[in-house]
Specification:
Layout: H1 12-36, H2 41-45, E1 53-61, E2 64-72, E3 77-82, H3 87-92, H4 96-110, H5 123-140
Antiparallel strand pairs: 1-2, 2-3
Length: 143
């Protein structure tokens, strides 16, 4: 009887390299799956929906009524501005125009009124403007 016994010698270095490359391949496949699979439709349905149009809210500063005008489409806030800011009001309240521009830029980026940073120069004015924008957006919300 002759038996042919084969002995296989595996080097530890080869086993480690194989395990590392297999792990990297699995990570790469998972990364590609997460990147290229379509996103959940639930996140899109949870977005706030607006009735497209222009909505206004009134801000009263020192017996002067200013209207904050918010323009929205179905799912985005497109524009925020004062609709009746004249030179007299701008001269009486010089920080109001920069405040609304700063807030509007943050709202465009976030598409919400959450996590808005106020300027240290005029936090009270910024809060009043933010409340007016919130009132206009409540009018715009689709039911």
């Amino acid at each position: 009887m002759s038996s042919k016994t084969k002995i296989v010698v595996l080097h530890m270095k080869e086993i480690i390299y194989t395990a590392v490359f297999a792990t990297l391949a699995i990570v790469l496949i998972l990364l590609l799956l997460f990147m290229f699979l379509p996103q959940n439709k639930e996140t899109k349905s949870n977005e706030e929906k607006y009735m497209p149009g222009i909505y206004t809210s009134t801000v009263t500063l020192n017996n002067t009524a200013l209207e904050v005008e918010v323009t929205v489409d179905e799912s985005h806030i497109n524009s925020i501005r004062f609709s009746n800011l004249d030179d007299t009001v701008a001269a009486m309240f010089p920080l109001i125009q920069p405040a609304i521009e700063d807030i509007a830029e943050q709202v465009y980026d976030n598409q919400s009124l959450e996590n808005i940073q106020y300027s240290e120069e005029n936090p009270y004015t910024s809060q009043i403007i933010l409340d007016a924008i919130g009132d206009a957006l409540k009018k715009a919300e689709a039911h």
